Structure prediction request, 88 residues.
Amino acid sequence: MSKAPEVSTGRVVTPVRVVIALCLFAPFVAMLWVGSYAEVDPTFIGIPFFYWYQMAWVLISTALTMVAYQLWQRDQRARKVSDGGASE
Prediction:
């Protein structure tokens, strides 16, 4: 009889993964809560708040996605090392 494959017993929800989820979830909350930025003032170089706030979130979202990706890569490397370098 063949032996069943071993299942990793490591924690699935870790603090690093919670931070990753928050980094990816924050832009959605910021953009879907339209009432928080549906205003004209303050203007920035003549651009109403409604528009420059959204454009700022494009840059913020990029930075948060990069942070999430780096944390994910580090988490995966740590899991491989803790598993003894076993291939998937």
